[in-house]
Amino acid sequence: MSKLKENYKDSFSQKFSDFMTGDLEVPDSIHARKKQDRVDKIVEADQFFSEFTTSDDIQRRELYQAFKHRRFVKHANKIYSIMSAVIGLIIIIILLITVAYLPEFGNKSNPDNNVVSQRYIENGLEETGAVNIVSGMILDYRAFDTFGESNVLFIACCCVLILLRNDDDEINPDEDVIDFKRDIILEKAAKFLVPVILVFGIYVVLNGHLSPGGGFSGGAIMGAGLILFANAYGFERMERLFSYSTFKKITFGALLFYGVAKSYSFFTGANHLHSIIPLGTPGAILSSGLILYLNICVGLVVACTMYGFFALFKRGRI
Amino acid sequence: MPVFHIILLGLLIVCAIAACTSRKLINSVVIFMSFSLVMCVIWFLLESPDLAITEAAVGAGVTSILFFLVLRKINALNAYDADDEEDEDYKNKIIESESESHE
Q: What's the complex ipTM?
């Protein structure tokens, strides 16, 4: 037996044999040792501090944090109120300066006395055929503005539909029955009032180019009549007259007709130079070109939207 | 300016302030309705009947109905004002009836 060297464990052959048999202990690399040292130090420090910090200190620290937070909120609130007042003042000053640049009230050379309004008043009847100049303006000269307004109303109804609509699963079939109470006074009043209101609304819409009124006001009146009917007789009877598919068809059809008709009018010459639509005799019911039909479209959209708002607010579906 | 105009404009201001300062929401809505009605007459006197019709239909009609519906949805129609001393009896009655029903 050969004599073993004293440091036989470090010899290469020993290491190799240990490696082959799997007994080799991998020495800690310098990096790992350093990391271990750091962890040890942190643990040591924690132990050191935990000896000297009591629960009282922790509580005090938490209190201090809460106090700091509350003080921050207080300061932030103060800053917010000051900033809002400052911003409001700045806006007021800017608007007042802008107002100072506007022309004087009642001045004869003001822009509102320019040729446009004069032309509307002088040639409005001749060019649009509408006795009611307001109707002629909003549905002929500025028809695209009115188209935008109808679209805005429709989009508002869509937003309310998205926000307030109940899905079919959530609807309790007994809910309508419980929610709706028959009221004899309301029923008798509605029996007399609803036809009158609806006929008056239709009259206002159809005579929009002859007398005060027009699509929006007449549509609002018709919508109020529909709301009264739905309130008096309940949604079950209302659905025979006006269901969700009716709402969709009427609104979509009216908006589409409005867009197409007005686009045609604009493509054939915005000033009605080559329009083939006859203007008729002013004062007759079938006169003033497209205005009557556009009034009907706007009235239908507005009536549907008003009733749609009511139904969505009341039970969550149209 | 005719006296009638001044009276209407004064009513308008009174209605606007009252609608903001009234304690119960339902009172506010009713005052707002009357505001719209006064505004409708003023539009008519300013020779714009188109706006008068629209104001009467939308302001006094549809908007108020929507307000009432919202008030009913948030249960504000039957609510009482706890700060109001006149409602103290009503409050006590409700408490009594509730305790009786529990028993």
A: 0.70
What confidence tens digit (pLDDT) does each residue in A45-81 have?
777 766 666 667 777 778 888 888 888 888 888 999 9
- Picking from B29, B46, B54 by the largest number of A CB atoms within 10 A of its own CB, the best residue to mutate is B54
Side chain identity at A50, as an amino acid letter? S
Between the CA atoms of A57, A63, A65 and A66, what dihedral angle is there, to the nearest 10 degrees?
Answer: 170
pLDDT of residue A1: 47
- Its pTM stands at 0.65
- How many alpha carbons fall within 13 Å on the CB side of residue A161? 16
Interface test with B, best of A178, A179, A211, A313 (most B CBs within 10 A): A313
> What tokens does A264 get?
């045609």
Task: Check if the beta carbon of residue A312 is closer than 8 Å to that of residue A160.
Answer: yes
| Domain coordinates in residue numbering, chain A | 131-315
Record: contact A313-B49, CB cut-off 8 A: no
Q: Which residues of B touch A134 (CB under 8 A)?
A: 50
Q: How far A215 CA sits from the closest chain B CA (Å)?
A: 10
pLDDT in tens, B39-88: 999 999 988 888 888 888 888 888 888 898 888 888 777 655 545 555 56
**Both tokens of residue B30?**
């009713």
Neighbours of A229 (CB within 10 A): 22
Q: Are A219 and A157 in contact (CB under 8 A)?
A: no
Mean pLDDT of A198-211: 89
Tokens standing for A9?
């464990």
Query: Any chain B CB within 8 A of the CB of A223?
Result: yes
- Smallest Cβ–Cβ distance between B57 and the set A220, A309, A313 belongs to A220
pLDDT, one tens digit per residue, over A127-149 is 777 788 888 888 877 777 888 88
Residues of chain B with Cβ-Cβ distance to A313 below 8 Å are 66, 69-70, 73
